[in-house]
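request received
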Amino acid sequence: MGTKMLELSEAPAYFERYRKIIPRFEEFLEHLKRPLPLYFRLNELKCPQEEIVLKGLERQGAKVFPVPNLPRFFRVEPRDFPLGNTEEYYLGYIYPMTLSSALPVMALEPQPGEYILDMCAAPGSKTTQIAQAANDQAVIVANDRRLDRLTALVANLKRLGVASALTTLYRGEVFPFGVPFDKILVDAPCSGEGRYRQGYEGELLYQKEGHTNLPAIQKGLLVRAFDLVKVGGIVVYSTCTINPEENEMVVDYLLRKRQAQIISCQYPLPHHPGITEWEGRVFHPELIKAARFYPHETESVGFFVAKIKRLF
Amino acid sequence: MKKKRRKKIHKEAKWPRVISFEEREEVLSFWEERFGIPPETFENYLLLSTAKNYWLFVKPPELRPLQNLQVQTVGLLFTRRVSKWLKPTSTALQRFGHLATKNIVELGPLELDRLRREKRLEFEADLEEGYVIIKCEKKIWGCGLYAKGKLISYLP
Ligand SMILES: C[S@@+](CC[C@H](N)C(=O)[O-])C[C@H]1O[C@@H](n2cnc3c(N)ncnc32)[C@H](O)[C@@H]1O
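response:
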């Protein structure tokens, strides 16, 4: 399987097929030449007072700014500040993560007492965010199919002091039945187009030939998640790609196979409705209730989020 | 039928066992007596055990359905049995140590540095011998042992 890194000079040609769906396309292309801002999430399970982290990082030469409308998120300057080498990181007071990555868990709205499956969980930025949101009182099953990545997840759960998660190593498509999950997050493996930008050229490894069929994997994961969640429960499907074949088309597949509905959500970052037509194919009208986030509008990674309710 | 007890969490690990009421009392009394952290702090959590380890795990509405999963890890490593003593983990102290009222050792940044590098310090303080919480400028670093005029580091 030949994979190739997309050079910045090749980006306009690569993304050209999205000209019609990405708002202000030229601005988007320009934006890719800028580096990603640095953000972190504060972990109040470990950190007794916000001030300790803010003062600590400032003493080490960082400037820290709260992100408006996103409690517990902070932007750090300079953007190459080595957050991962700080005491605050080591003690689990912070989790560096990009802003838009917080959106799927906002859609999930975890509550204490719920059984929640995080089907593709490693390295755990969202698992730990779920734990925090439910004040360490939801019952979280954090699953990933790769042992090496699960090891990183286990380390992050320990670092953040999470006691509400157990970890498993299943292929999501065959995750066993039996737990009455209230909510499931499918943060699916994807082509990662939304991460692509200056300094992150390696994030987009596109296949020259014989590529893995990501949409087929994503459909398998989403259908299984739907079948695992209890009737009336919620599945959030998210990716960090712009590609409709990995987003709307995957959810469209589910909506045709099962009795499901998409729930609209409020988000603190600019977004656009899911698309209902792509290259001549028409999707289920519910898909306008899904949300698309673009790098140049969010100063972050491009994301797709659909909150799906199981009706029967 | 109850599943048999197993030991460690590894690739084919089975579920850790839920400990008896007495064993739970023993572990939580240790936290209360040694650090003044009341048992109610942990009332929403189960204590599970594998070999010499105790794990803290949120109390689910029902445990049985989860026990059918093949798990890698369950919850947070909380306390260990070291010969006849109970020893808190640094992770657990970092999480709950802010609630402690006693047996806390406050170090300055330079002392903490030295302790982390050299693993032990000559140290005199008005403390009971035994495990202590190591704290520096409001940050809890974890577990140490105070005995015979020395402070020994168990920081990870
Ligand atoms: C986008 S990443 C998840 C990021 C993670 N949710 C976070 O926020 O830190 C996708 C993950 O899916 C896992 N994965 C890929 N195929 C899978 C499958 N069939 N079943 C379960 N996990 C899978 C990968 O190992 C990878 O860790």
